[in-house]
Specification:
Two copies of one chain form a homodimer. Chain A has 396 residues and is of the alpha+beta class. Chain A has helices spanning 44-49, 102-108, 112-119, 131-134, 140-145, 147-160, 174-180, 247-257, 259-267, 316-331, 377-395, and strands at residues 20-25, 29-34, 39-43, 77-82, 88-92, 97-100, 137-139, 162-166, 194-196, 212-215, 227-235, 238-239, 242-246, 270-275, 280-285, 288-290, 296-299, 336-339, 346-350, 354-358, 361-362, 368-375. The radius of gyration of chain A is 26 Å and the shape is elongated.
Amino acid sequence: MQLAEPMIEDWRAFTTHVSLDDAVIAQDAVTLTWSDRRVSLFHFAWLRDNCACSQCVHPLTREQVFEIADMPDDLRIQAASIDHNGALNTQWTDGHRSVYGPGWLRAHAYDETSRAERRGGDQVQPWCSEYGAALTAFDWHEIRHDDTALLAWLVALRRTGLTLLRGVPSTPDTVAEVAQRISFIRESNFGVLFDVVSKPTPDSNAYTSINLPPHTDLPTRELQPGLQFLHCLINEASGGDSIFIDGFALAAHLRQHEPEVFATLTSVPFEFWNKSATSDYRASAPVIALDGAGEVSEVRHANFLRGPVSARSELMPEIYHAYRRFIQLGRDPRFRVQRRLAAGEMWAFDNRRVLHARTEFDPQTGARHLQGCYIDRDELLSRIRVLERAVGAKAR
Amino acid sequence: MQLAEPMIEDWRAFTTHVSLDDAVIAQDAVTLTWSDRRVSLFHFAWLRDNCACSQCVHPLTREQVFEIADMPDDLRIQAASIDHNGALNTQWTDGHRSVYGPGWLRAHAYDETSRAERRGGDQVQPWCSEYGAALTAFDWHEIRHDDTALLAWLVALRRTGLTLLRGVPSTPDTVAEVAQRISFIRESNFGVLFDVVSKPTPDSNAYTSINLPPHTDLPTRELQPGLQFLHCLINEASGGDSIFIDGFALAAHLRQHEPEVFATLTSVPFEFWNKSATSDYRASAPVIALDGAGEVSEVRHANFLRGPVSARSELMPEIYHAYRRFIQLGRDPRFRVQRRLAAGEMWAFDNRRVLHARTEFDPQTGARHLQGCYIDRDELLSRIRVLERAVGAKAR
C-alpha cells in the first residue's frame, strides 16, 4: 500500500531519475547512497516521524496521527534494505515497519546538495521603468476558461509582482470574479470589494482626487494583503494615471549604493497607523523586511498612514535621513512605470512588493471608477502548487 | 484650529496632567522641559513630519499629505514658544508655522522615560491548569447589547488568551453574530464558518472523531488566525472534551528550565504543510516566535500539519529532542485546562498563543456539532482601541 502513487503522505507523485544503491545503518541514522553518488543521511527520528503507513497517517485525511514524542528513546532501525520497487524498507526494534519511496526520499533529503537544489526554483525578477514597455497583457477570457492560461498568469505575477489583464468586462463586481478564479477574497474594514472614487466624505486619501504618493495598501495590518486587484470600470477624468515602482528594485539599489540607509530601513520599526471614526489599526514594522536567509521579502510603506516615529533619540537623524532617501528614490523616474488604465483593464500586483501611486485627477472633467480587492500570498502560492500538480501529472 | 480637541491628526483627545515649562532650540532639535522636570528632545525633522495643520494633513481623512522628503535640507525652527494654551508654537525658517498640543507631545515623546512608560500597559498573564477553575464565563446577552461588557470581554481575551461565553443560542450561524460583534470574519479554505463534526470523507483530522492533540489552527499560513471561536450547538456524544494549554506558559517554562530547547524552538524553522486535493498551503516558521524585544509573541504547532523537517543534518538530533520535549510538556497535566463544552457555550481564544485539543469521542453515542470561525488580532486590537476612546471620552 505504501508504494502506491501518490504516496499516502502527499497528493503528488514523486518520480526520480536516480535510484537508491545502498543503505547502511549508522549510530542514529541511515546513510543512503544514490545512483548519482549523492549521499543522504536520514536520522532515525526523522524517518520514524515520516513513516507514512496507515497506522501513522490517517488514510483519508493523509494527516499524521503518530506523534514523535511516542517514539521510545532507544528506538533504532535494526534492518534496512532496498526492495524490488527501489524503496527503502526499514525494520524498527519495536516491530514497526516503514517503507519510503525513492522519489519521496530524494525530494525531502536534507543533505546540503539536496537542500541547495530546493532553494533554487522560480526567481524574483526586480524591474525598473523599462518594464512598462515590456508589460504584456494577459487575456481574461483565456484565464477564465483555461487552467494553463491561469497558471501562466499566476507564475508571472509571482515572478514580477505586476501584471495587466485585458478584456475584463467593465461591469461592477467583475473584479471579484477574477480574484475568485484564484481563491476567496480577503476582506478589510473597507469591505470585500472597495470602490476607488472621489467621495464627498472620504475616510482615506485614496477616496479623494488628490495625487496619492507611492504606497502599499493596509501597511497598518500585521500582514499586508499579498495581492491587490484594481479593475477600471470608467476612466474619463483627466489625470489619474497609475504609477508602479518595484519596491524590491528600490531595496536592491539601496543595499548596493547606500548600505547604511538599507540597514536603517531593514532594522528600525516604523509606526503604521490607520485611525478613523470606527477603526484604529496599528502595526510596527521596518519599511523593508528580510527573510530568514537575509533576502528582501517585503516592503511596507504609506507616508499618509504613519504614526509618529518612536525610537531612541540618537537614532532619529539617521532614521529621517533613511526615510527621506527612500521617498526620494521612489520619485526617481528610473524606477517608475506610469500608465493610464482604460475601462476593461485590470492591474494585479504584489502589494507587499510593488508600490502603487496615482496622479491627481479632476473629477469635474469626467467620471473615474476603479474597483478593487485583495487576496493573500498564501492563496496565490497554494493555487499555483495545485495547478502545477496537474501539469506534473500530464508530463508523466 | 490646531488646538481643537480632538486634534486634526488623531481621533482621540490628548489630556495631560503636566504642562510645558520651557522650549529651547538646539542645533537640530527642540528641547522641551515639562512641569514634572522630564526633558524631551524633539528633532526638527520629527516635528516637521508631525505638523498637523490643514496644509500638511487632509482635513477630512486626517491623513498626511505633506511628505518629509520635501523638507529643505537646511530647514530649522527659528522661534519656539509655549503659547497661552500651553501648546508648543514653532516658526520655521521657510515661513511655515506649526502648533503641537502638550497632551499630544507628551503621548508621543521619545525620550527614554516616555518610551518605557508606553511599553507598559496591559500585560499578558500566562496560566496553568488552575486557570480552569478560575475561568469565569462572560454573558453573551450583556456583550451583545452593552459596549462596556464587550470591552471587558475583549480585554480579558487579550490578557488571558482564553475566555468562555454562556447564553449563546445553540442555533446554527450564531457564532458569526458573536464574532461580528468584534469585526468581520477571516475566511479560510474551510469556509467563513466551519462545522466541526465527524464527516464520512474528512479533509482534516478535525473532521474525524479521533483525539486531536494540542495545536493551533492554520499554522500552514504565514499569519495564523488571531482569534478562534468554537460554539457548541450540540454535545451528546461520549468523549470530546476540550483541552487548552497556554503556549506562552510552555514557552516561559522552557525558557527558564530548558534554555537549549527554547533556543532551538525559537530559531529553527519547522515546515507546516496542509495538502489536500484542492489546496496546498505551506509555511516555514519556528514553533515559538519572538518579537523585536525578545518576548514570546506567538506559538505555532500542529503535529498533524507538518512537512518533513529540512535543516542542516548536524542539527537534526537537537531539533527532534526539542520538538519531542515540546509535545511532552503539552501533555503534562500541570498545564492543561480540560472542560466539556455544553450546548449554548462558546470558547473564544487566541489561536496564536493557546493550543487547543480534543479527546476522542464516540459518534455512535450521540450527536456532536461545534461551529467555528476566525478573526485576526488586528481586528481585536482595533476594536479595543475604538471602544477605549469612548471610555476615555466618558472619563473626561
